[in-house]
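Thread: Modeling a multi-component assembly for a lab meeting

Hi all, long-time lurker, first post. My supervisor asked me to bring a structural picture of a complex we are working on to next week's group meeting, and I have zero experience with this. I have the sequence lines for every component (662 residues in total). Could someone generate the structure of the whole assembly? Inputs are pasted exactly as I received them:
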Amino acid sequence: MGGNTAINLGVFGVFVLITLYIVYRAGSRNATASDYYAAGSSFTGPQNGIALSGDFLSAASFLGISGSIAVNGYDGFLYSIGWVVSWLLGLMIISERLRNTGRFTLGDVLAFRMRQRPVRAAAANVTLVISLFYMIAQMAGAGALMALLLDVHSKVGQAVIIAVVGIVMVLYVLVGGMKGTTWVQIIKAVFLIMCVTLLSVFLLGKFGFSLSAILETASRNTPLGPEVLEPGVRYGGNPTSQLDFLSLALALVLGTASLPHVLMRFYTVPNAREARRSVVWATWMMATFYLCTLVIGFGALALVGSKEIAAAPGGENSAAPLLAYEVGGAVLLGVVSAVAFATILAVVAGLTLTASASFAHDVYANVIKRGQADPRSEVRVARLTAVAVGLLAIVGGIAANGQNVAFLVALAFALAASANLSTIIYSMFWKRFNTPGTLWSIYGGLGSCIFLLAFSPAVSGAKSSIFPDVDFAWFPLSNPGLVSIPFSFLCGYLGTILSREKADPVKQAEMEVRSLTGIGSGLK
Amino acid sequence: MTKAILPPTDSGPARGGRGFATFDDPGSSLLVDEAGEPDFVALQASADFRELRRRITIFVVPATCGFLLWYLGYVALSAYAPDFMGTPVWGVINLGLLFGLLQFVTTIALTLAYARYARRKLDPQVRAVRSLTAEDQA
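Re: Modeling a multi-component assembly
Sure thing. I ran the full set together rather than chain by chain. Output:
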């Protein structure tokens, strides 16, 4: 596509070198578990807010959403809205309570007033499953991106690139711990948001600062015509696709505040007030970013046109890079590519850290060592886990290379909303909730989500499935959230009332008071 | 590199004349047990904590239900009433796009409203509950 490989690689190389240096400087004193997992809780709300948006904005949101808007118009825009609105849940219900209750992982919160070992094991299982799915999606995306941007078309070449991404990400985590990784997120988020904002302002300027003019030109450059501005292009027509649409929307809005790597970020600030401020900052960043995707998506349609986007390698994912090339030539394309690549790198680093923390803190320290682990060995286990998780992600990413990336990401959201949200809500708000209820809602949500997905059109029977040639799909929706999220709430309820185990009222009092005030947590 | 946040300067009584609450301090009405640890059951039943819980509930419950209904309603309208959402409002901008942009506006507005409410009504009440313990005096 006329890009200049040397420029792309150069910009990206500079980014990696700068961030590695910063990570090295930030992370050289990562002695304690608190440093490694939570950066010593030393970040401010605004810093963590920017890092939160960095953790959250994956390449799927940047390339995927702007591409989806360019191809599906209005229906693509709905992703953007869901992801912005979802932060309200994190703001009002999750962030402050989580900060006050836990120390390093989701398991800290869920196991607070329950029997430690089974609940922590369950929390770690969920975290590992979600993180791995999300990570493999990102790694596979890195392969696809490279095909597009660097003209690497051989499978071996893409595998090498995926391996390089994996190695750099493990380096970030090993050298920098949470502090280094957070700085990578901050730098990347600033780059990404500056990049999309400048591009949008430039586009708006080109059309006389009239959104209407961009939309109008866009609608003349697609075979859909004005319909591209109306709902129904992607999800219209029959009742199944309409339900699928609702299901996706539900998973998006409820999934964000249940993603383990997002939850873990709340531990990097010193208290609940800063946790709240970080969500406020993250919301501003999100709103800016996703408004820009609207302009960029329709702008790509207006300036590049749907025919050229569809014909480019990478299909709709190439809308933003094509637009950058159209607007600013090879240099801007290089910058946009490097930013997209940095995005993948930073997100997988955050996920690796979360997965390793969950294994070391919940499984090793609390399940295997029964809470008697030496903190130094706990951190050592966490680092080893990071390497193992990195290897798994590289292998999985190479295996999944070429798969439908958006599907894996949406699956991670559905999994998070199904397994985590119900459990968090019950354990914070329902006095009677007990250990069996916790296990039922975690495994019920996780299990039903994976089970329904295995028999959905996302896996088999449709053109976009993983196995398009066989058909064992009987569940009609590609996204199982509409069923599995309520199901996990039901499981948690039934598991609680059907067991004879009584909830511990003293522990419940401690958790409620602590989650709302921070008393007993040592936080100021 | 990281800017550390200093703990808020504590103007509690411990800094001034009176010392820490001790075992032989009969005037202490702190809700703590013999070891000085917070008594969570008593705290949970205290009027200050119940007021904190009430203030949180009256904001968070209606706000959460409200934004979920508004968002899901918008999605449902897009799915089941595409013609209505396609009604042009201004230029080529139709009702659906307008509602979509409004979702951004309401999200920011609710975020700011909650932050303000928390600063004014919740944080002081949290301090009131915390002052029932020795938490901020150590």
